[in-house]
């Protein structure tokens, strides 16, 4: 077993490191012959060292080359990434700015919408107002026309009233001379009186009597004092009663001109629904239901025919 390993060592000797070659115990124990053959085979001693060194150099160079290659490659990558990061940062800023702008735009849009709606409302209101104004203008014009019409009518009315007065107070008389009272009315200064002295079927209620007087530019007769009271009495005839302008209103005797009865001894106490009835020659008037048909006596102011 030992010999085999020794032989194996011998064969492997040139391949081993240079340091082991010098002290060789195995070589001296064996014969010189085999030594001599070994010497002739390793005759160029420099060659033994050149090969490993070259290999080492090659490896070293390769490592250095790779290192240089990778170093440059890595730094290039690094720079690229840095640039990219910078680019991204700037783009983020840009987006941020854009986002701010978007928000501002939204705000502006919103404000604009509100303003526009306000504007729409305003213009709607303006339209409404101008419509109203037009209507008012129309009404005003209508009123002006109505007033003008009324003035025209009034002028015509004045003329026709003047004509009516001439006819009633002057031309109706047989001598065609003008009188203070219309034809058929009796003068007791300062008033004219007309009594409906007629048979029963022509009699009417107090309201109807007042209407008849109104239709003849007069009222039912009124007496504020004893003279006027006597004047009414003087202008009535016959045995039957006459309505005068006195009736109960709100529990009080009231004249048709709105004044109160001044002398309460002229008629019994007021009863609701009663009116004053005059009998010729009697001092005290009767209090009678206004719905009873009676004769009646009207009164109007007499015209003044002298200055
Ligand atoms: C960032 O990159 C984009 C493409 O991704 C390029 O168009 C742009 O020019 C770059 N900007 C800078 C500042 O490098
Ligand atoms: C975006 O707006 C915010 C506040 O609204 C502000 O702090 C920021 O600086 C703005 N950014 C840019 C890029 O203008
Ligand atoms: C947008 O409007 C809101 C309130 O409506 C306000 O708080 C915000 O500051 C506004 N932003 C800008 C950029 O004007
Ligand atoms: C809209 O109009 C109202 C009154 O009509 C006013 O009070 C309000 O301030 C207005 N709003 C804007 C945004 O102009
Ligand atoms: C405009 O008018 C409408 C109704 O006519 C109302 O709903 C709306 O709030 C108004 N807008 C403004 C800004 O006043
Ligand atoms: C019409 O008569 C009234 C009095 O009844 C008078 O005031 C008015 O001035 C008269 N009108 C004209 C146009 O004469
Ligand atoms: C009032 O006038 C009418 C005609 O219009 C006449 O019939 C009536 O007798 C008059 N009344 C009096 C009290 O004169
Ligand atoms: C009321 O009338 C009576 C009779 O007509 C008369 O005697 C009396 O003096 C009058 N009283 C007043 C206050 O006028």
Automatic annotation (TrEMBL):
GO terms for molecular function: carbohydrate binding. Residues 17-32 have a biased composition (Basic and acidic residues). It holds the Pfam family Lectin_C. The keyword Transmembrane applies. Residues 1-41 are annotated as: Disordered. Residues 78-149 form a coiled coil. PROSITE patterns: C_TYPE_LECTIN_1, C_TYPE_LECTIN_2. Residues 188-299 form the C-type lectin domain. The chain crosses the membrane at residues 49-70. It comes from the Eukaryota. Keywords: Coiled coil, Disulfide bond, Lectin, Membrane, Transmembrane, Transmembrane helix. SMART domains: CLECT. This is C-type lectin domain family 10 member A-like. It comes from Gymnodraco acuticeps. The lineage of its organism: Eukaryota, Metazoa, Chordata, Craniata, Vertebrata. The gene is LOC117546996.
């Amino acid at each position: 077993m030992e010999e085999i390993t020794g032989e194996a060592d011998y064969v492997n000797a040139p391949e081993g490191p240079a340091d082991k070659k010098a002290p060789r115990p195995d070589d001296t124990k064996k014969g010189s012959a085999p030594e001599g053959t070994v010497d002739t085979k390793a005759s160029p001693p420099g060659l033994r060292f050149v090969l490993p060194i070259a290999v080492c150099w090659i490896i070293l160079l390769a490592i250095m080359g790779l290192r240089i290659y990778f170093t440059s490659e890595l730094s290039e990558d690094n720079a690229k990434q840095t640039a990219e990061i910078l680019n991204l940062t700037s783009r983020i800023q840009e987006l941020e700015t854009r986002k701010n702008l978007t928000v501002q735009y939204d705000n502006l849009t919103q404000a604009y919408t509100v303003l526009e709606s306000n504007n729409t409302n305003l213009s709607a209101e303006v339209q409404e107002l101008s419509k109203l104004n037009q209507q008012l203008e129309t009404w005003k014009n209508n009123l002006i026309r109505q007033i003008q019409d009324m003035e025209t009518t009034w002028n015509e009315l004045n003329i026709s009233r003047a004509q009516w007065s001439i006819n009633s107070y002057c031309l109706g008389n047989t001598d065609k001379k003008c009188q203070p009272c219309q034809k058929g009315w009796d003068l007791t200064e300062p008033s004219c009186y007309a009594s409906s002295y007629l048979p029963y079927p022509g009699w009417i209620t107090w309201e109807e009597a007042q209407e008849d007087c109104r239709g003849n530019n007069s009222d039912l007769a009124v007496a504020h004092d004893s003279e006027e009271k006597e004047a009414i009495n003087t202008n009535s005839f016959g045995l039957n009663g006459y309505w005068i302008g006195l009736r109960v209103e709100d529990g009080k005797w009231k004249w048709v001109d709105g004044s109160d009865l001044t002398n309460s001894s002229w008629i019994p106490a007021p009863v609701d629904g009663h009116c004053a009835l005059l009998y010729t020659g009697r001092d005290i008037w009767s209090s009678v239901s206004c719905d009873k048909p009676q004769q009646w006596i009207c009164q109007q102011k007499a015209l003044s025919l002298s200055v």
